[in-house]
Amino acid sequence: MRFASVTAVDSSLTGPPLDTPETPGRTRRSPRRLAAGAVALGALLLTGCQLPSFGAYKGATTQARSTFHLWQGFFIAGIVVGGFTLLLILWAVFRYRRRSDELPVQTQYHTLTEIIYTVVPILIVLGLFVATVLVENKVTAVEPDPATTLHVYAFQWGWEFEYPNGVKVIGQTTDAPTMVIPTGQTVRIYLRSYDVLHGFYVPEFNFSRYASPGYWTSFDLNVLHNGVYRGQCTQLCGLYHSLMFFNVRSVSPSAYRTWLSVTAAYQRAHPSSIGQLPADLHANQNGTAPSYSGNSGNSGNSGSGNTGNTGGALYGD
Amino acid sequence: MTDVIAPPVETHEPTELHLPPQVPGDGHEPSHGGHEDHGPTGILKWLTSTDHKVIGLSYMITSIVIFYLSGITALILRLQLSSPHSSLLSFGQYNALFTMHGSLMLYLFAGPFAFGGLANYIVPLQVGAPDMAFPRLNALSYWLYLTGSITMLMTIFVAGGAAQFGWVAYAPLSSATSSPGAGPDLWIMALALTGFSAIFTGVNLCGTIFYLRAPGMTMFRMPIFTWNMLVTGILILIAFPVLTAALIMLFADRHFGTHIYTAVGCHLVNGLPMQSCGSPLLWQNLFWFFGHPEVYILALPFFGIVTEILPVFSRKPVFGYKGMVFATMAIAALSTGVWAHHMFTTGAVLLPFFSFLSLLIAVPTGIKFFNWIGTMWHGQLKFTTPMLFSLGFLFAFLMGGVTGIMLASPPIDFATHDTYFVVAHFHQVLFGTAVFAGFGGVYYWYPKMFGRMLRESLGKWHFWLMFIGFWITFMPQYVVGLLGMPRRVASYPSNLGWQSYNIVSTVGAFIIAIAFGFLLVNFVVSWRKPIPAGDNPWDAQTLEWATTSPPPHHNFTHLPPIRSERPTWDYNHPDAITVPHGKAAHNGHVNGKVKEPV
Fold first, then answer.
1. Domain range for residue A288?
2. Is the same domain home to A45 and A67?
3. Which among A96, A33, A51 is positioned nearest to B391, based on CA atoms?
4. From residue B64, how far is each of B98, B346, B385, B587 by CA, in Å?
């Protein structure tokens, strides 16, 4: 169902770029051939996934798939508009090389041409904007009742993942933490930073979001297939920014539930296995560079069973 | 047609080849006009002069030195990235070095080179003025800029080293706790100094263009370069005070205990921060409210340069002159309303609004593109070095512009934000403008400034090596960015296939470096074995080519009649006056009728 709607977006994308060959009225291609080309390209686009990926990830979440199709549309629009402009430049360069000392006609204005190359780009921009809004609404949509909720905290230089039943996963640079989530279900991420700005970025999700101190931000993920997806901090956050990795492991919902309960039990039995945040994090939320000790557990639990809304405690509530 | 003056090309004496040009300094006592040469000479003249040509040259030489220094930092950065876990630089050194690279290029090279250097030199000549409106303020601008530049460079040597928070200095990483030391403080000071220098230059440009135009030089007869510098000056007055204010607040956060940009002291009530809370997002809003107009402050002057060069070497007037002017204004107006497209991934901005305005900038930019093409259309193109650089700009900016439209779409930005895709995009845009068009301007106006030519052969070596190096450097960065390589990383995993792209990119960077060796050789050769340029070696169109090369003190002894935006051309080619509006026949052809000048 989602795919159908995504394809619908695609067809709307093909509209604007196809207008462009007609742009400045300088080219004299037959409108009929143009229409045939438009139909062919439109049909090609409607088949969706047959298009090349143009270097981007196809997307491992439903949201990422939408973004990917938008990317394809923008890329084709870019090729058409950019290629057309490139051809015009090249034509001018090769056709109008100086061949004599005769002065050319000193033309300065051609009103019709100028109107065309003002109006047509406006139409293209409108088309791109409509496609953008349609996809953007899908990518940023949050479901009222997500299957799982995670609280993700970034810090210099690592990540803390908190699950609804109190399971915590904390990892720093050399020991990247793994976020386990269920495949095929809506996962709500609440994102925040303990110190400076960080960027939560999973390339195959075609998505990144700043983790900022001072406010929560949230988004939904619907992972399509089981697998491990690498993630990394993208926003410069100090000395070891380059090493702030994490992984997302998507498993079947039943495996997820099993993992969650087993880990919870283990963490209750072994509270010392709790991964530790940098020692001076709470003393100074503004981000003194913590000593780079690298000590961290990959899984740990306070056993308190709190819901993860612990941001307030950080600020002394 | 009352006053008859000799054609400018004939009045020239190509023997005056001394550098610096014979321009008296009038530093200490007020100069009451007059063309007599007096005052100090030599180094003292350069230190005390208020002549816009001397100050403009000082600006250009300083900023080109900074460009070369910053280029060297880029080479070191590229060397580090050519292997995944290079030990060339430590993480801290790498962070400091890319902060320095960005700060030098954006704050101290591209802007000052354009509006402090080229505009300072050229704008008074183009409007037929004897000097800038406020010559002493102009000198103050330069000395503030030089002081700021030295301050920035000296941060390398302070305890704790230079700032490591990137050229954008995002809060709270730029706070005293995250970035302690004198380096970041001096970084702030350096930007405050150069910020004031830019503001004063903006005032000077606006004042000169509004009030010192020669008789006959109406607003719509100003060359496009001057138009663009006027709009740039206005944008400077809009943007730079915001930066200076934001920097002062950052300094207060660091030293006076305020919490303007920090979330410290916030108490969460029901999960929401109280209103008295400081906000790291405020820095981003203020910074980009400066930063995005700044991008166009760095672009419009270079658009102007290209718009000067293309008509001259096509032997035509600029196509769509008025459209060009209004497109510039539209870009400037839109540029003040798109800052949050740098903040799409904060999750805290209104995406459709900023997306739409950002996409909309493509329209006036497209108008400019088609006007440039229209200028060449049916022209007689001659591929001199300045022309090649302008064409290089067109190709580079086309690529950077197309990827810019992609990034204006929030979902695509989510996928590529802070990756090398963005790095490639803005390098193609800024390299296209500041480097291709900027050095095209150097090749174009060098004969006017020094009365001697640069060598065409060396210039073409410079261009072709740079053009090839440019694509080799930046195209792989798009690919590796789409694969997920973040920017500002000193190392990267070796098992992801990123290294080969980075090696190619590094090779390209060194090809560009070799290209810039040719520029230095060209300067030296023109210095040692001068080829006299004459007043108007390019058969150019605008007023600066109607005076001697270099121009005399106070610029003009005679002015040709000004009846269009290209008085020098009209004077030299009375039979080839611009075909006026609306007379164009089919297919852009005009049937050769020439109308009397109005």
1. 148-307
2. yes
3. A96
4. 18, 36, 18, 44
Helix (H, G, I), strand (E, B) or coil at B38: coil
Tell me which of A140, A172, A200 is where a domain ends. Answer: A140
**B91 at interface of A, judged by CB pairs closer than 8 A:** yes
0.80 surpassed by pTM: yes
DSSP code of residue A228: E
User: In sequence order, what are the residues at sequence separation of 6 or more whose Cβ sits closer than 8 angstroms to the Cβ of residue B528?
Assistant: none
**Which positions in chain B touch A215 (Cβ < 8 Å)?**
273, 281, 348
Q: Which of A149, A168, A170, A167 shows the shortest CA–CA distance to A159? A: A170
- φ/ψ of residue A199, rounded to 5: -125, 120
Of A99, A118, A140, the one marking the end of a domain is A140
CB–CB contact B267 A317 (8 Å): yes
Residue B349 has pLDDT above 50, yes or no: yes
Q: Are residues A86 and B173, on separate chains, in Cβ contact within 8 Å?
A: no
Whether the complex's predicted ipTM is more than 0.90 is answered with: no
Residues A158 and A91 in one domain: no
Interior CA angle at B18 toward B14 and B20, to 5°?
Answer: 125
Both A58 and A156 in one domain: the answer is no
Rounded CA separation B433/B439 (Å) = 9
Name the residue in chain A with its Cα closest to that of B394. Answer: A89
Our count of domains for chain A comes to 2
Contact A46, A69 (CB under 8 A): no
The pair phi, psi for residue B267, each rounded to 5°, is -115, 130
Question: Given this model, what pLDDT does residue B530 score?
Answer: 94
Q: How open is the CA angle A271-A277-A278, to the nearest 5 degrees?
A: 135
- Residue A23: band (very low, low, confident or very high) from pLDDT cuts 50, 70, 90: very low
